[in-house]
Every structure is written in structure tokens, then in C-alpha cells.
Specification:
Layout lengths: L7 E7 L5 H13 L4 E7 L2 E8 L2 E6 L5 E2 L1 H7 L4 E6 L2 H9 L6 E2 L8 H6 L4 E5 L2 E6 L2 E5 L9 E3 L7 H18 L3 H11 L13 E4 L2 E4 L5 H19 L15 H5 L6
Antiparallel strand pairs: 1-6, 2-3, 2-6, 3-4, 4-5, 7-11, 8-9, 8-11, 9-10, 12-13
Helix pairs in contact: 6-7
Length: 267
């Protein structure tokens, strides 16, 4: 997973010449300055990455998203080449939340897939060879887009592997909103109108059902189906009620990674 090279503070330095003690001191200072970015170290085919957002160390990981501590990393790559890259906090968050995501090859070739990514409000990383771009709510945040004709692989926490966590987040969100402003009647009106675009919202089929603020989703409905459907239904319901997410008592939910993954980051 490549990071934008033009944002590098340093790259390819050897710890034989830039010792780990100095690296650790520099990183500690940067944390006090609310550093966001990545630190990479590699040696003889082994690679580790540590990620910070606004001065907070989110953690370290290696291939396959396996997490590891700083001490374990030092033992694994004692004589490493190292790089440090400054990133916007949103990009750091994306790298961390997709560290163990399963890649999903997209059908077709670039740029034909762009419309699908925008329509599905894709949130994650899009990789094509050496090109990696960062996306949120179907918009490109940074990185490098694929070249024309390239095949692409999408990495996102919005996958079946994270289904339980995503469903739990939506249940918490809708339940909290309902306590502040009852949703059921307006939700039914909205989902009837949206069912043509999102069949899983059909209130008669009840694949997705909201009653007394309690959300249920049939196991046959995939993440790719319910994520854009729920977002569209929530937006339309709040608009009809004259409400904004900013005005509702759900501030703590914004700190959960599922918030931006759901496409709510700009709302």
C-alpha cells in the first residue's frame, strides 16, 4: 500500500546511519506537534508500518494487516531502511482502517469503474499496480488515480468481513436518532419512494425494517446493498423532518470508524 511520495519527510534512510533511538525521539516530538502520517521500515523482505492521526499513534501493522508493537518491529527489522510521510488525518485514518481489508477486484477497467465508485459512495483505497488513491463518500481525497485501461482492486472496511460491525453501527445510530426524533412513519414513506432504486428498502419485503427505532437487516442483504440504501434513506428522512445530524445527540458516534465509512463524514 503506497503512500504519496511527494509528502515524504525522508525516505530510504538506513538505521545503520540514523539509529532507532534518534528515530524514536523524533517521532515523540512529532506526536506533540499533532503529526499525522506513516512510518515505514523494511529489511530483507520484512515490512512494518506505524500510523498516526493528529498526534495519536493508532498502531503498527505488517503484511495482511497483522498488528504489532514498536518493540516487536524493532526485533523484526533491526537494520532497516526507513521512511516517514506526512499525510492529512483523513488519509491516515483510511490507511489504518483498511489495513486488514480484503481486496475486491473491480470488473472492467479504469476509468469505467469511476461511476460505480461514486454511485456507491466508496470509502477506502483503490489500488492499480503502483497507483493508490484514497476515497471517501465516492470522492477522491488524494493519492494517484489509475492509468486508463488499468484493472483496479478496492480495499474497504465496507465488506462482508465487517458486516456485523457495520450493522451494529447503523443500529446504534438509528436508535439514537429515533430517541431524539421519532423516525418510523417518515422512514416508511421515504423507503417506499426509494425502493425502486434500492429494492432492499421495500417496506413490504422487510429485508430492511425499522420499528420503534430498532433496525433489522435480513442476512441475505449484502453490505454492498444495505450501505448505500441506508444512507439514502437516512438523508431523505432527515430532510423531510427538517433535521441535521449536526443537531442530534450523536456526537460520540462520529469518533467510530464506521461513521466515515458509512458516508456520513460530510454531514
Amino acid at each position: 500500500m503506497r503512500v504519496p511520495p511527494d509528502a515524504a519527510v525522508y525516505t530510504g534512510l538506513r538505521t545503520d546511519h540514523y539509529p532507532w533511538t534518534e528515530i524514536a525521539s523524533d517521532l515523540a516530538l512529532r506526536q506533540t506537534q499533532e503529526f499525522s502520517g506513516t512510518f515505514d521500515a523494511w529489511e530483507s523482505g520484512r515490512w512494518v508500518r506505524f500510523v498516526w492521526t493528529r498526534g495519536v499513534l493508532l498502531g503498527g501493522f505488517t503484511r495482511g494487516g497483522q498488528t504489532l508493537s514498536w518493540e516487536t518491529a524493532l526485533r523484526g527489522v533491526p537494520r532497516a531502511s526507513v521512511s516517514l510521510t506526512v499525510l492529512a488525518p483523513t488519509l491516515s485514518d483510511l490507511i489504518w482502517t483498511t489495513r486488514d481489508a480484503q481486496g475486491r477486484p473491480l470488473s472492467g477497467a479504469w476509468p469505467d469503474q469511476r461511476g460505480e465508485l461514486e454511485r456507491d459512495r466508496f470509502h477506502g483505497l483503490l489500488i492499480a499496480g503502483e497507483h493508490c488513491s484514497f476515497w471517501s463518500s465516492g470522492r477522491v481525497l488524494g493519492g494517484t488515480l489509475p492509468v486508463a485501461g488499468a484493472g483496479c482492486v478496492a480495499y474497504s472496511q465496507n465488506s462482508e468481513a465487517n458486516r456485523d460491525r457495520l450493522v451494529a453501527f447503523w443500529r446504534d445510530l438509528l436508535s439514537r436518532i429515533h430517541r431524539a426524533a421519532p423516525l418510523d412513519a417518515t422512514w416508511r414513506q421515504v423507503t417506499m419512494r426509494l425502493a425502486e432504486t434500492y429494492p432492499c428498502l421495500d417496506p413490504f419485503a422487510q429485508d430492511i425494517h425499522l420499528s420503534a427505532g430498532q433496525l433489522s437487516i435480513d442476512e441475505e442483504v449484502t453490505v454492498a446493498e444495505f450501505r448505500p440504501a441506508l444512507l439514502a434513506a437516512l438523508e431523505a428522512t432527515l430532510a423531510r423532518l427538517g433535521l441535521r445530524l449536526l443537531d442530534l445527540p450523536i456526537t460520540d458516534l462520529r469518533d467510530r470508524p464506521e461513521w466515515t465509512a458509512a458516508g456520513l463524514d460530510a454531514r
